[in-house]
């Protein structure tokens, strides 16, 4: 069996934790399995590096930030190889140059294109544990790139896909995927299984356990994912195409407090306006989340959408700069929003789900600012201060109150 | 003009110092010159990384130590590019993979073989300051290697040679090359010029300002070197083939307290014995410094030589393991030695130099343990505790006591 194991920054936060991860990998190796380990930078390393850079230059070039940040994972992988050696396990650490981790050229938010697996297969063939830097890639200019938030998950899934791994295990500091964030909803339950689509919606809605690109990629290549704890041996949550267990109505409730709403009012009501607007934002690397279009006054229309808080300033500037081309009345933003979503493949065949969610919010007196639905997801925007309260109310309505 | 500037770890030890170096490079750039900057890791970074690694595994594999340490220079170069950007100067940082810095495969002590200058020339052509990681290379397995102590000097000289630079400036925390280490000999004077050969002998004898491999390479390719301070604008010391200023009898006095003596006693007196012994040590990467052979008893000979303290254990083990092949009586080591040398092209035509040195030692009651001479160098071994005293006595004899 070939197993890809990914450990996040917390799991390799200090020497002791590195040794723990090494022991865990050694155990897998000693069963006779081939093991590929993907690591993030240790603990807060990336944040510290970014802080130093910004102290020198608040507008540090993104190319150089990537050059700087990639040292973080390289440190982790080298120390892990050193730790495995101390356990008598042959290991080799490899960075993005050494595994030819090709990405698009966008610094800070690149996408993986191709992995040259030759070196990895060669090292596995000589019975070494192969430790690969997560989060980083190399673009066509032979420059380092990084994959954006949670990018190490994507690295792990991409490697699992390229190597046709038998499993891709994502280790975190929680026991698996929960029906809601257990830090906010004390009664949250661990799911034993979840589908790619549900996981994808949960990830996009801020559930934070897995990076959404990694789930997309796992779905595309059929990579069997397991989300489990690096701190204990509990079974974790399996993410796959179709789940076998009897399904609950919904799988989980997610909260994203990092969202902001932008509204473009009084757009000309003619074909292609939405295309122009979102194409413009995409070209400028602004990730747009939920979109809502409504009819405005006097043959105009209003378009609202959500973005990450940190993209608001940039998005507004881009829209303002293109006022003539887009022909709108005004653009406004609202940062006082939280995004609360419920996700579940079960809801397609149960029309009462949305009503049940809205009722839960009504019962605790929370006003809904905006609603958006997909086949397996319902998202509402509420005031930021209401986010956690909304999440708890909805969770109780669907899952009841444990103990 | 194309100028290569190398700054050591102390010069880039914190954000403020990084900004200072950036300003200095920006000044050169603004004169219209092409600038290539070579950097070491910040301050004590390399030591801290090594300490962490050794805490995890005292016998950490050398390949992984190199993988770990190379993050140090990459951090420096990225931060320097970020600092230059804040001054409005276009800059790009490059690591050993990006400039194809090919080395031999020996981890921890590799030698440079070839540099692909295409990328650097391309970046210079677009009027960028190019910042290259010192100390590191890539071997034929596509693995990181490091060049050993002072390796960044070698990187700088190699780049200057490959790019046919007009000057290679080595910045340190002293004002240039002195007649003796000013921290030990208060009356030491700065030299305005020195030859490659003298510099080489000073470096080999532990004067520490420049790495000896870098001087060898500068001599081989005729790279004009300047050693100067990163803290002020004083002129520094020019290192070149022939000096133009009127020469003093000797150029400097050097002290190396890191030496140890190994003696192999009772070797069979037959041809090829010295070859066998030193070939064996070379193959095992033990650097041998001065060698002395004397006639032993009963048709045997004794060979003594000095190595770095850290190589003693290894060297003794290798020799013991080959006792049958080498046929000797016993091997002993002495760590209580300091190496004191005088260096100067002037001494070839002045037969009294050695006598003057020995007299100076006799006058302060220091016993000489071993003597070795070359055309432009005389080295003596004394007890470790006598090292600094010997250096001062010799310096006073040749340069007089300043004030």
TrEMBL record, chains A, B:
<feature type="binding site">
    <location>
        <begin position="6"/>
        <end position="9"/>
    </location>
    <ligand>
        <name>ATP</name>
    </ligand>
</feature>
<dbReference type="Pfam" id="PF00696">
    <property type="entry name" value="AA_kinase"/>
</dbReference>
<comment type="similarity">
    <text>Belongs to the aspartokinase family.</text>
</comment>
<comment type="subunit">
    <text>Tetramer consisting of 2 isoforms Alpha (catalytic and regulation) and of a homodimer of 2 isoforms Beta (regulation).</text>
</comment>
<dbReference type="GO" id="GO:0004072">
    <property type="term" value="F:aspartate kinase activity"/>
</dbReference>
<dbReference type="InterPro" id="IPR045865">
    <property type="entry name" value="ACT-like_dom_sf"/>
</dbReference>
<keyword id="KW-0418">Kinase</keyword>
<dbReference type="InterPro" id="IPR036393">
    <property type="entry name" value="AceGlu_kinase-like_sf"/>
</dbReference>
<dbReference type="GO" id="GO:0019877">
    <property type="term" value="P:diaminopimelate biosynthetic process"/>
</dbReference>
<keyword id="KW-0808">Transferase</keyword>
<feature type="binding site">
    <location>
        <position position="183"/>
    </location>
    <ligand>
        <name>ATP</name>
    </ligand>
</feature>
<dbReference type="InterPro" id="IPR041740">
    <property type="entry name" value="AKii-LysC-BS"/>
</dbReference>
<comment type="pathway">
    <text>Amino-acid biosynthesis; L-lysine biosynthesis via DAP pathway; (S)-tetrahydrodipicolinate from L-aspartate: step 1/4.</text>
</comment>
<keyword id="KW-0067">ATP-binding</keyword>
<feature type="domain" description="ACT">
    <location>
        <begin position="262"/>
        <end position="345"/>
    </location>
</feature>
<feature type="binding site">
    <location>
        <begin position="172"/>
        <end position="173"/>
    </location>
    <ligand>
        <name>ATP</name>
    </ligand>
</feature>
<dbReference type="InterPro" id="IPR054352">
    <property type="entry name" value="ACT_Aspartokinase"/>
</dbReference>
<dbReference type="Pfam" id="PF22468">
    <property type="entry name" value="ACT_9"/>
</dbReference>
<keyword id="KW-0028">Amino-acid biosynthesis</keyword>
<feature type="binding site">
    <location>
        <position position="73"/>
    </location>
    <ligand>
        <name>substrate</name>
    </ligand>
</feature>
<dbReference type="InterPro" id="IPR002912">
    <property type="entry name" value="ACT_dom"/>
</dbReference>
<keyword id="KW-0547">Nucleotide-binding</keyword>
<dbReference type="GO" id="GO:0005829">
    <property type="term" value="C:cytosol"/>
</dbReference>
<dbReference type="GO" id="GO:0009089">
    <property type="term" value="P:lysine biosynthetic process via diaminopimelate"/>
</dbReference>
<dbReference type="GO" id="GO:0005524">
    <property type="term" value="F:ATP binding"/>
</dbReference>
<protein>
    <recommendedName>
        <fullName>Aspartokinase</fullName>
        <ecNumber>2.7.2.4</ecNumber>
    </recommendedName>
</protein>
<keyword id="KW-0457">Lysine biosynthesis</keyword>
<feature type="binding site">
    <location>
        <position position="46"/>
    </location>
    <ligand>
        <name>substrate</name>
    </ligand>
</feature>
<keyword id="KW-0677">Repeat</keyword>
<comment type="function">
    <text>Catalyzes the phosphorylation of the beta-carboxyl group of aspartic acid with ATP to yield 4-phospho-L-aspartate, which is involved in the branched biosynthetic pathway leading to the biosynthesis of amino acids threonine, isoleucine and methionine.</text>
</comment>
<dbReference type="InterPro" id="IPR005260">
    <property type="entry name" value="Asp_kin_monofn"/>
</dbReference>
<comment type="pathway">
    <text>Amino-acid biosynthesis; L-threonine biosynthesis; L-threonine from L-aspartate: step 1/5.</text>
</comment>
<dbReference type="InterPro" id="IPR018042">
    <property type="entry name" value="Aspartate_kinase_CS"/>
</dbReference>
<dbReference type="InterPro" id="IPR001341">
    <property type="entry name" value="Asp_kinase"/>
</dbReference>
<keyword id="KW-0220">Diaminopimelate biosynthesis</keyword>
<dbReference type="InterPro" id="IPR001048">
    <property type="entry name" value="Asp/Glu/Uridylate_kinase"/>
</dbReference>
<dbReference type="GO" id="GO:0009090">
    <property type="term" value="P:homoserine biosynthetic process"/>
</dbReference>
């Amino acid at each position: 069996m070939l197993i890809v194991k990914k450990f996040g920054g917390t799991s390799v936060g200090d020497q002791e934790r590195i040794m723990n991860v090494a022991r865990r990998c050694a155990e897998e190796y000693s069963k006779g399995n081939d093991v590929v380990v993907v690591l993030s930078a240790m603990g807060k390393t990336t944040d510290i590096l970014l802080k130093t850079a910004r102290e020198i230059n608040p507008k540090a070039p993104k190319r150089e930030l990537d050059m700087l940040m990639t040292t973080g994972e390289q440190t982790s992988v080298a120390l892990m190889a050193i730790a495995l050696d101390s356990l008598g396990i042959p290991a080799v650490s490899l960075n993005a140059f050494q595994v030819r981790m090709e990405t698009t050229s966008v610094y800070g938010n690149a996408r993986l294109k191709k992995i040259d697996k030759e070196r990895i297969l060669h090292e596995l063939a000589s019975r070494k544990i192969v430790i690969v830097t997560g989060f980083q890639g190399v673009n066509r200019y032979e420059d380092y790139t990084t994959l954006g938030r949670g990018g190490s998950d994507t690295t792990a899934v991409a490697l699992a896909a390229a190597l046709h791994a038998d499993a891709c295990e994502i280790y975190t500091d929680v026991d698996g995927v929960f029906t809601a964030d257990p830090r906010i909803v004390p009664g949250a339950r661990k799911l034993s299984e979840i589908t790619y689509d549900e996981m994808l919606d949960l990830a996009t809605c801020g559930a934070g356990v897995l990076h959404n690109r990694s789930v997309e990629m796992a779905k595309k290549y059929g990579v069997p994912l397991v989300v489990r704890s690096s701190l204990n041996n509990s079974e974790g949550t399996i993410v796959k195409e179709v789940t076998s267990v009897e399904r609950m109505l919904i799988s989980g409730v997610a909260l994203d407090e990092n969202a902001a709403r932008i509204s473009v009012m009084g757009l000309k009501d003619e074909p292609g306006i939405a295309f122009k607007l979102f194409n413009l934002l995409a070209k400028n690397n602004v990730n747009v989340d939920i979109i809502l279009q409504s009819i405005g006054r006097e043959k105009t229309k209003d378009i609202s959408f959500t973005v990450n808080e940190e993209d608001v300033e940039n998005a507004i500037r881009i829209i303002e700069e293109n006022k003539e081309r887009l022909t709108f009345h005004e653009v406004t933003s609202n940062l006082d929003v939280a995004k609360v979503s419920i996700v579940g493949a079960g809801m397609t065949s149960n029309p009462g789900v949305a009503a049940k969610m809205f009722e839960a919010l009504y019962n605790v007196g929370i006003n809904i600012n905006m609603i958006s639905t997909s086949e397996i997801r319902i998202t509402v925007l509420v005031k930021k201060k209401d986010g956690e309260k909304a999440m708890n109310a909805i969770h109780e309505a669907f899952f009841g109150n444990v103990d």
